[in-house]
Design brief:
The protein is an alpha/beta fold and 233 residues long. Helix content is 46%, strand content 15%.
Length: 233
């Protein structure tokens, strides 16, 4: 896991910058100016390196503290531009809008859908779904049927292909799109994967999914993240 040893700035400054970049639709240059205004001179390229070093690590450390999701899954994909090409961000929320999981994929097919379902099922805050609501993408019935045959998915899980029931996840995509728009796309797949993990982590926190941390309590969120990285808030 990433630490702060060898950095020219304190962990407090680094985590402040990481939190703000992952929470709000700002560019690295915007964040550079914000830090300058607070007396901290950091180049935007350094800020990029901090996000690459700590965003995915934050998401990994946060996972064990998430509240359990319900068994009603709403699954959909949205488009993310990587190196000038469109890729697919698989995302799922439950009936209350809580984030279940996400997966960036170069393809939109049954194999990608299965990878996403396997990843989601392996998370500590998820349960075996009673229902999975999807759109009319033909890859989902194929993926679900194959996973049931392989005993990877409960045989009584019901797949519903109904677009209007998926409004909740389609609305939730907008959170992520607002954050990705200032960057005008990602330079490579790994950069996108790490940054998106951080976006999703902070979104889960702001939804109130972290136990004992209010979704609108910025001080509690800052203290919680500092604790995850074992530094004082």
């Amino acid at each position: 896991m990433a630490g702060f040893k060898g950095r020219h700035f304190t962990g407090e400054v680094i985590l402040w910058a990481v939190r703000w970049y992952l929470m709000f639709p700002i560019s690295y240059r915007d964040l550079e100016l914000m830090l300058t205004d607070r007396g901290v001179a950091v180049d935007h390229t350094t800020l990029f390196r901090w996000i690459q070093a700590y965003a995915a690590d934050l998401e990994k450390r946060l996972r064990p503290y998430l509240r359990p999701c319900t068994g009603s899954w709403r699954v959909d994909e949205t488009y993310i531009k990587v190196k000038g090409r469109w890729t697919y961000l698989y995302r799922a929320v439950d009936s209350r809008g809580q984030t279940i999981d996400f997966l960036l994929s170069a393809r939109r097919d049954a194999a990608a859908a299965k990878r996403f379902f396997r990843k989601a099922l392996g998370q500590p805050h998820t349960v075996i779904p009673r229902t999975i609501t999807v759109d009319k993408n033909a890859a989902y019935p194929k993926a679900v049927a194959e996973m049931k045959r392989g005993d990877e998915l409960w045989r009584r899980t019901k797949l519903r292909q109904c677009k209007y029931l998926n409004n909740i996840v389609e609305q939730d995509h907008r959170r992520i799109k607002r954050l990705t728009d200032p960057g005008l796309g990602f330079g490579c797949f790994q950069t996108a994967r790490r940054t998106l993990a951080g976006y999703e982590a902070m979104a889960m926190m702001r939804k109130g999914q972290v136990r004992k941390v209010g979704g609108r309590d910025m001080k509690a969120q800052a203290a919680f993240i500092a604790g995850l990285f074992q530094i004082a808030a």
